[in-house]
Amino acid sequence: MRRLLGLWVFCTTLAQAHPLAIAVGESMPPFFIEGDPPSGLELDIVKGALEGSGHQLQPLFVPYGRAERLYLAGRVDAYATTERKSAGFYSLPHITYENVAVTLKSNALALGSLEQLAGMRVHAFQHARGLLGASFAGVVKKMASYQERGRLEDSLRMLEKGRLDVVVVDINILRYLQRKGVVGEGLAVHFLFPTLHYRILFRDKGERDDFNKGLERLRRSGDYYRLQERYLGN
Q: Where's the Solute-binding protein family 3/N-terminal domain (predicted)?
């Protein structure tokens, strides 16, 4: 009888779970990894923070710029962002991105300032010009060439072949691709950019509050840091 009652409670909880559509970044390992089911560090943090809150995460993988448009159009309940320009309720920071300038070790470039990127061939992640500050946006105009791409695996391969001078990418994405053998170890990193702290912007205050409570619980339990170790290594 107790087993039947427990099953009834479990099924009732699932039935009452409120679907929560959150726009997240395109497949960008190790943060977002599309699959069945999807996974990744950032996705698992969001999922873990919502666990037990009565909300069922429905992730929507979209380019960074499109996420805001979907939110403003009322087609998603929330989205991940670094900016504070849209109306709604912002969560506590749930993840940090550490972007670096990547060059070939064999070129022995000593990059100590953004101005040194002038005259170089550069690829960066989507919306980097807007997210990395006015100084970076200013030096973009002085580069020999500049492109922004959703995924940077091909750009890093171009760098290895000498067809680019610099790729701007999160250091954990770079390390993940190196561990997977997508790119080699002959790359140097230069810390020129501010750290980006991402938050979830919710339309509903109660959902934001539930997320914040879950995020704090995830950190207190140590599960947050175990997820970091799982996806990023030591």
A: 19-234
In 63-79, which positions are buried (b, 16+ CB within 10 angstroms) versus exposed (e)? ebeebbeebeeeebbbb
Please name which of 87, 99, 80, 68 lies closest in space to residue 40, comparing C-alpha atoms: 80
pTM to 2 decimals? 0.86
Give exposure, 201-210, as e/b (b: 16+ Cβ within 10 Å): bbbeeebbeb
With respect to residue 166, please indicate whether it lies within any of the assigned structural domains. yes
The end-to-end CA distance of the chain, in Å, is 47
Which tens digit of pLDDT belongs to each residue from 191-225? Answer: 999 999 999 999 999 999 999 999 999 999 999 99
Is 40 found in the same domain as 149?
no
- Torsion 25-31-34-37 (CA) sign: negative
